[in-house]
Design a protein that fits this description.
This protein is about 40% helix and about 20% strand. By secondary structure, the protein is of the alpha/beta class. The chain folds into 2 domains: about 15-140, Response regulator (Rossmann fold), CATH 3.40.50.2300; about 150-245, Winged helix-like DNA-binding domain superfamily/Winged helix DNA-binding domain (Arc Repressor Mutant, subunit A, Orthogonal Bundle), CATH 1.10.10. The strands form 3 sheets. A 5-stranded parallel sheet has the order 2-1-3-4-5, with helices on both faces. The chain has a 4-stranded antiparallel sheet with strand order 6-7-8-9, covered by helices on one side. The protein has a 3-stranded antiparallel sheet with strand order 10-12-11. It binds calcium ion.
Length: about 250
């Protein structure tokens, strides 16, 4: 049932350093081999990793040591992932929690989010997907929801609902705005279509892929049409990333 992680999963970890350098991650997963693979992968991302294989021990460690992210398997000996999550939230611990489940049961997903998890990943998953979600969760802790977001010459005001590129005001629809805000809050982080679909549209990605691509194209046209350098980049087979425009050779015609 582990099925685990596909061998063809490939990850580009070049940008893992800065934002997540010394972040500490607790992994509570009883499947020893999977736990070791996840641990190795996170370590390769320059994260400091602690692994627990038992639910109760996992909770104990989560309560006694500070972590920047906790990855919780659902089915665990001792105490299941939902229970651990609920207990941490009951104690007002705001650490981001990513839950792992063996199957894509919608009820499990809902239960996970209801118990206070921030995100949910179904096994088997690809390392690229795990990395993207881990980075997004580590990022999410920093910016306050009300602060103006600035990436290069792009400025988004989440409260005033306005967007400027340089001196130019950019008018966006509600969904375009939500999409851009999500990209800007995760600058330099590759976001998968699954993540974008869930966050911006609240739907599973397989039904959303086309819609996401269409919206990204609209957004690009509005942001880059006046000849400004490109900021939203497609990452083949994965999703999209927003980067500050700097290099002149990014300029498209
Ligand atoms: Ca398990």
């Amino acid at each position: 049932m582990t099925g685990g992680l596909r061998k063809d999963a490939r990850v580009d970890d070049r940008d893992a350093g800065a934002a997540t350098h010394s972040a500490r991650v607790l992994v509570v997963e009883d499947e020893v081999r999977l736990a070791a693979l996840v641990s190795k992968h996170l370590t390769d991302m320059n994260l400091s990793v602690r692994v627990e294989h038992h639910g109760s021990a996992g909770l104990e460690v989560a309560l006694s040591d500070p972590f920047d992210l906790i990855i919780l398997d659902v089915v665990l000996p001792g105490l299941d992932g939902f229970a651990i999550c609920r207990e941490l939230r009951r104690r007002n611990m705001t650490v981001p929690i990513l839950m792992l489940s063996a199957r894509g049961v919608t009820e499990d997903r809902v239960r996970g989010l209801d118990s206070g998890a921030d995100d949910y990943l179904t096994k088997p998953f690809e390392f690229a997907e795990l990395s993207a979600r881990v980075r997004a969760l580590l990022r999410r802790q920093t910016p306050a929801a009300v602060l103006t977001l600035t990436v290069g010459d792009l400025v988004l005001d989440p409260v005033g609902r306005s967007v400027q590129r340089g001196p130019r005001r950019v008018d966006l629809t509600q969904k375009e705005f939500a999409l851009l805000e999500y990209l800007m809050r995760n600058v330099d982080q590759v976001l998968t279509r699954a993540m974008i679909g869930e966050r911006v549209w609240d739907f599973t990605w397989d039904r959303m892929t086309n819609v996401i691509d269409v919206y990204v194209n609209h957004l690009r046209r509005k942001l880059e049409d006046a000849g400004e350098p490109r900021m939203i980049h497609a990452v083949r087979g994965v999703g999209y990333v927003l980067r500050p425009a700097e290099a002149a050779d990014d300029r498209h015609t």
